[in-house]
Amino acid sequence: MSGGSRGIGLAIAKAAAAMGANVAIAAKTAEPHPKLPGTVFTAADEISAAGAGKAIGLICDIRDEAQVDAAIARTVETFGGIDICINNASAISLTDTATTSMKRYDLMNEVNTRGTYMVSRAALPHLEASSHAHILNLSPPLDMNPKWFKNHVAYTIAKYGMSLCVLGMSEEFRDRKIAVNALWPLTAIDTAAVRNVIGDDQMALMCRKPDIMADAALAIFNRDPGACTGNFFIDEEVLRAEGVTDFSPYQHEGSTRLMADFFVPDEVFDRSPTAIVHGIG
Questions:
Q1: Which residues are catalytic?
Q2: Which of 68, 72, 175, 198 is spaced 20 to 30 A from 270 at the CA atom?
């Protein structure tokens, strides 16, 4: 997994470990961030403590090809192979064109699009050797509604680049029985990074917990990679297909309404029975 020292990535990794999976976290955070908790090493400890699976933390800047190759090699050396590649690392800046510097533009595209492409490419030979190979990008549906571009063109380009990797690689790898899918939340998810961007504890009451993304990811990984590929999954829809009807455990106590996440097409909200406030985007 790229990233994963906190938030959704960490939740997915812990859930996978609880099911017995071994997990390698490849992230850049070696020292605690002043505003965001967790490092690659504390994350590995949490993941190992979560269940039967083991975890290793690998310092890796996914913009650096040599570091990515080394992280893949260390993972294979430690665990004997790779069955699942999760492209979770992401950089965000919700700024308009005039206020998005080229340095910030480059960072988002190097981490989100280029990093996803490079990690998937490096993992490919090992996924080809697996009997149950999945690539999962934490990226949105490709909804071309201009409202998703007008306030943060650079971020949308970078995030949609991850989704374009799903669109292309799912077809490229279909005959090799390597599933390539995307997963995105219906509602905003309560993470430290989101709190920094959109608000405070009160705002967090309108977000679901990262556990919903973890449960949806595991449901996808349990599906046949030869049949389940090229999908842009939404977390709630994945779980409803698995028979889940009560989503209250994913909400905070005292939560009475939920906020929509970025990039979710209107028709997805129209078919969802969940009451959501359109407050993002």
A1: 155
A2: 198
